[in-house]
Design a protein that fits this description.
The complex is a heterodimer of chains A (159) and B (430). Chain A contains seven helices and four strands; from the N terminus they run ααααβααββαβ. Chain A has 159 residues and is α+β, with helices and mostly antiparallel strands.
Chain lengths: 159, 430
């Protein structure tokens, strides 16, 4: 049953495929469609397709690099908190999948989380204590935005 | 000695039992973990320097600091000289204090009323009468997969409602938390709760009954041909109905939006009729009222146990008389039926209609509270008390009717007494 819809911009394998040669030559070891999916999962790099670097595919190569730029270059990512707007509801704390891994009590809505979580509510406001554990950072580099999605007041912003 | 203690937060009627408070070597509060801003501010208040610690009496237009004994003496004088006092408040104090308040009202043959008469008292009473107090919040956590907020805005009034119990926690039958649940919100405007809902049902004011009737029509298999239902465009309404059909356990949390506007009885009857109908067709459903103050349910329960009535009782007749149209705070003040008041843990001057508030200012009144509210600042006698739940304990009732024990975690300031202690002294001297 569907529940929370992820509002992040998801690049689909079909979109990536349009920028590939489409020859299915298997020089990379896969069909072009499979290569497209693996690119998105970061199991292969653009450089693994030698055909793309031939002069006649120059436009496709440039287009592909542009399309995947946010995915490949998201190093500087983080959470911005507007303390004035935060009401300490804890939605972000409980919905965060990393928090649940770090403190299993959080999965049941427990507010007083331990010090290993990414963020918890202190003195009625959110406090971010372990930002680097967020899965937007390497090695995961996922475009996860659930904390922002379920914030009532717009206090938390993901960038 | 530094330590961490767990406390039951008394910010609102969710009564969160998992708030951890770090104390420093001197026993002072250093950090509060888990409580939302509402609860944290109340707990932090205990260590504020601006807190008033001494009783005051209004003499010749000036507020003079007096001893506790002098304040009690003046209070007794006012109440004994009064023909019919109003004993009001009660939703923020323990059940033990409420029992004492009832005894005082009975002894003085006055009017006993709580803030429940202006708020969810009628809903709580109706829920109990129909034997349908819904379910416990823990049951909603484990089983509820379609959460309907009707006429209530927990994003701004019960901040942790969704994150602690109803939506985000992962329960037995909803192991993925919010991804296994649907949130539907019925309201007359786009509130912050509507913002994160899956089904945003914004209806026209006063059309709750129309919406209930539309849902009932669909359940009974009638043809749905309108372009909109109670202001909701048909596609959006049908999407909600589809989600309702696929739910295993739908829980309706209803707030003041349903009972204010003069249609309380009609709306409540319709809502409970809908709950019964849904249960009949195999969609398990419960309805739980959202009571605001931390012990509003306790005020109704305690009053019911002692008198058989939920609020608004006139003890001057034998037997005592209950008629909210005549014996609750607004009519007794407007008709000038009371000539003094004892207000405990409430701020009526900030909540009553202006004309009624003006009437309250014309009579002498005593206020027991821990914070200098608007009402306390205009009181004839003001007696500061401890913060229930942090400095003193007692019994309280959660919004779903569960009894909760409150235990103190710090000692109150020197000389400050609890509501229970003050009322006990008053009762013994009357």
């Amino acid at each position: 049953m569907f529940g929370g819809k992820i509002l992040s911009k998801k690049i689909s394998p079909l979109t990536v495929y349009k920028y590939l040669p489409g020859t299915n030559c298997r020089k990379c070891g896969y069909t072009c469609m499979a290569f497209a999916s693996k690119l998105l999962m970061k199991e292969v790099k653009i450089e693994d397709c030698p055909v793309l670097f031939e002069p006649k595919y120059k436009d496709k190569l440039e287009g592909l690099k542009e399309l995947l730029k946010p995915l490949l270059e998201t190093y500087e990512t983080g959470l911005e908190l507007d303390e004035e707007k935060c009401v300490g509801c804890g939605n972000c704390v409980v919905v965060c999948p990393v928090n649940v891994m770090e403190d299993v009590n959080v999965s049941k809505g427990m507010g007083a989380a331990n010090e290993n979580v990414i963020m918890r509510v202190e003195d009625g406001k959110l406090k971010i204590i372990n930002l680097k554990k967020c899965r937007r950072f390497p090695p995961s580099r996922l475009d996860c935005r659930v904390c922002e999605q379920y914030c009532y007041t717009g206090a938390i912003k993901v960038y | 000695m530094k330590e961490t203690r767990t406390i039951v937060c008394t910010g609102c009627s969710i009564l969160c039992e998992d708030v951890a408070v770090d104390l420093d070597e001197h026993g002072k509060i250093k950090k509060i973990l888990g409580a939302c801003v509402l609860g944290a501010e109340k707990i932090k208040f205990t260590s504020m320097n601006e807190r008033i610690l001494k009783p005051k009496i209004l003499k010749n237009g000036k507020n003079e600091e007096v001893t506790f004994e002098e304040a009690i003496e003046e209070t007794i004088k006012i109440l004994m000289n009064s023909k019919k006092p109003l004993i009001y408040g009660w939703s923020n104090v323990s059940c033990e204090a409420i029992n004492l308040g009832l005894k005082i009202a009975e002894k003085l043959k006055g009017i006993f009323d709580s803030t429940a008469s202006l708020c969810q008292g009628f809903s709580i009473f109706t829920a109990k009468k129909l034997g349908m107090f819904g379910a416990t919040l823990e049951e909603v956590l484990d089983h509820g997969d379609h959460i309907i907020y009707w006429g209530t805005n927990p994003a701004e009034t019960f901040h942790r409602h969704m994150s602690k119990y109803t939506v985000f926690p992962r329960g037995e039958k909803v192991p993925k938390g919010v991804e296994n649940r649907i949130i539907s919100v019925v309201d007359v405007r786009e509130t912050k709760t509507v913002k994160i809902a899956h089904n945003k049902l914004v209806i026209k004011p006063g059309e709750d009954l129309k919406l209930v009737e539309a849902i009932e029509a669909w359940i009974k298999g009638e043809k749905m041909v309108e372009k909109s239902y109670a202001g909701i465009p048909a596609p959006r309404f049908f999407s909600f109905l589809r989600d309702l059909k696929n739910s295993r356990y739908a829980v309706i949390f209803y707030g003041l939006g349903v009972v204010s506007g003069g249609k309380a009885e009609t709306n409540l009857k319709a809502l409970y009729r809908l709950v019964e109908l849904l249960n009949k067709v195999g969609i398990k459903c419960s309805a739980i009222p959202m009571a605001g103050h931390c012990n509003m349910v306790g005020a109704v329960e305690t009053t019911l146990k002692a008198t058989g009535f939920p609020y608004a009782i006139d003890f001057s007749t034998k037997p005592p008389n209950h008629n909210p149209q005549k014996t609750s705070i607004i009519p007794v003040l407007m008709d000038e039926k009371v000539d003094s008041a004892l207000i405990v843990g409430s701020d009526p001057l900030a909540h009553l209609p202006v004309e009624t508030a003006k009437k309250l200012l014309k009579i002498p009144f005593i206020v027991l509270d821990f914070v200098e509210s608007l009402t306390m600042s205009k009181a004839t006698v003001r007696i500061p008390v401890t913060v229930t739940g942090v400095e003193t304990g007692g019994t309280a009732y959660r919004m779903d009717g569960k009894e909760v024990k409150l235990s103190p975690i710090i000692k109150p300031p020197e000389g400050l007494k609890s509501d229970e202690q003050v009322l006990s002294v008053l009762l013994s001297k009357l």
